[in-house]
Specification:
Rossmann fold; globular; 25% helix; 8 strands; alpha/beta
């Protein structure tokens, strides 16, 4: 097994990009003590890859990671991207290239793999909200890891909560 040194960030990149960007900003900023190496900078897969190829690439990245961070937003649990039914090689319930059919979205796949690997990887679930609402969390991971809100209410407005995230990540 590879030596695990990196951090893997999983999220609905459409709906929760601001939360991902904030996490990276805290990591890159000099005044913050949050420090991690984003595994997604190590290897990429192209957007036109087959879903099964992308999942294989995700698995390689996860195998390099010591921490798995899932950012949960409004639509995380219901995202379907990554299911075989959305692949151009899927037809009549079969894969034209002979791969096994999977109805797991990319996020479901990542969560299930993280839980399977939980002896070797720290699980952190961050909510793009001021509260932890496990009903929005994918079922595969909702009972595992450290769950924390990324925001807090201050004078009636949501503000990013650096300390909550730092504590959840164990830093």
């Amino acid at each position: 097994m590879a030596y695990r040194t990196k951090t893997y960030i999983a999220a609905d990149w459409d709906g929760d990009k601001a939360a991902v960007d904030k996490l990276k900003e805290w990591n890159d900023g000099e005044k913050w003590n949050l420090s991690f190496t984003d595994v997604h900078e190590a290897t990429q897969s192209s957007d036109d890859s087959l879903n099964c190829s992308i999942k294989a690439s995700l698995a390689k990245r996860m195998d390099m990671s010591k921490t798995f961070v899932l950012i949960v937003g409004t639509d995380t649990k219901t995202r379907r991207a990554g299911e075989c039914t959305y692949c151009s090689n899927y037809s009549d319930g079969k894969c034209k290239t002979g791969h096994t059919i999977s109805n797991d979205s990319f996020i479901e796949y990542e969560c299930k793999k993280a839980v399977r690997d939980s002896e070797n990887i720290k699980l952190v679930v961050l909510y793009n909200a001021a509260t932890v609402d496990k009903s929005k969390c994918p079922d595969a991971i909702k009972a595992y890891g450290t769950h924390a809100a990324m925001k807090k209410m201050v004078n009636g407005t949501h503000q990013w909560d650096y300390q909550s995230v730092k504590t959840a990540m164990g830093q």
